[in-house]
Amino acid sequence: MRVAVLSDIHANIDAFQAVVGDFKGRIDSMLNLGDLVGYNASPNECVKLARDLGMHSILGNHDQAACNPVFAENFNIFARNAILWTRNNLNHENIQFLGGLEKNYRLSCSLACHGSPDDISSYIALPFQARATLKKMKKGLLGNIKICLFGHTHKRKIWRMDVRGKVAPVEIPLDGMIRLNGDELYLLNPGSVGQPRNGDPRSSYFIFDTETNTVSFKLVKYNVASTIKKITIAKLPEFLAKRLLDGT
Amino acid sequence: MELRWMVSISLKGDKMTGMKDLKKKGKLKNGSEVLLRPMVKADRKGLGEFFSRLTPSVLQYVRNDVTDPKVLDKWFDQLNYDRVFPLLAFKSDKVVANASLHRVSYGWRKHLATIRIVVDPEFHGKGLGTLMINELVDLAQEFGIEKLMVEFPLRAYEALAMFKKAGFSPRAVIEGLMKDRHGADLDIVIMVMDVAAYADKSR
Hints:
The complex is a heterodimer.
Chain A: E1 2-6, H1 13-23, E2 29-32, H2 43-53, E3 56-57, H3 61-67, H4 77-89, H5 92-99, E4 105-107, E5 110-112, H6 127-138, E6 147-149, E7 156-161, E8 167-169, E9 177-179, E10 185-190, E11 203-209, E12 214-220, H7 224-233, H8 238-246
Helix pairs in contact in A: 3-4, 3-5, 7-8
Chain B: H1 2-10, E1 24-27, E2 33-38, H2 44-53, H3 56-59, H4 69-77, E3 84-91, E4 94-103, E5 112-119, H5 128-142, E6 147-153, H6 157-165, E7 169-179, E8 185-194, H7 195-198
Parallel strand pairs in B: 5-6
Antiparallel strand pairs in B: 1-2, 2-3, 3-4, 4-5, 6-8, 7-8
């Protein structure tokens, strides 16, 4: 089965549509690792598209805060401003949909989460954080899984624990394709569709082939100017528009 | 290049949320509230009044001579949030703290920012400094900054405790590097934090 794995779409309908166009006809199912909304200006359009496509979505911290602003209290001033705007602009049906999302999802021999398997707001960005999750996987504390699919950092990343228990990041090859070793454990982050932070403004996602055990990372160009125009019209913070130009 | 030009034009209008509209309430230890928001040009008078209330013993550790109106004028004339992100805390419309995130946009320090903070002595020990630092750390995460650094006199024990609480750890002490206003040698402590480690709420 070929699964398109997306994360952190963040209400960027131009990017979302471009990514859907990229994998259309080449996959069997779709998985969204959370944060359909927040930051950008098309929350209703993104939730509707995810629902229309039958994409399986899990809950992100911005989705959670859009449903209940109490969870936005610890957001920084930019994220908070954007999520309060999102809350005011999301229709009731879409709030209900986001409120019904689960925090984790089991797919074949993998577990999908937003931040980490324990907490949607936690980051897996540093070696000690990757090691903590991989150790839990090794001990079977997260079920019988070999792979954890995560998002939240907006940066595409692969962490690997080898058979000796050594944890290290794995460089993503230029062609984006990597074959996973069945004896090893992995943490895989597809990057962000709607607000990439790898220093490349293109949307990022990957296709996970559960039969061949391969992951193909993809970068997709989208109409950034159109997204910036929408942010301008919505009167969202200027910083949120400017950052899309550089992918930071 | 064309897109960047077009965007710079479209962002010039004041239709988007301005920095003044980006505000957030914060709670102090005693339960009272303060308002946090980025500093804007209209804050020139309020910031001047804030610094004028501070005693020489507090001001001696401020990097610039903020008692000189020309220094403050320059800050406001050259306000550039990509280089320095200044945050103010207000209590009853009065500035009670000023904290800032200083960045370099290129080279080997691109991933690093430094923090500077001055809190009204009336608000010392009330959690205002921690509130400001936490907000700057969250903003650093948003800006893609990986490490934060702060330096101050080693004998400023309250600051040491405050930064430790915020996730910083002491990495170096340089003996006798600075001098106080009476000319006595001061040891300086340098504290650093990994932003992504702080952001891990599960810790």
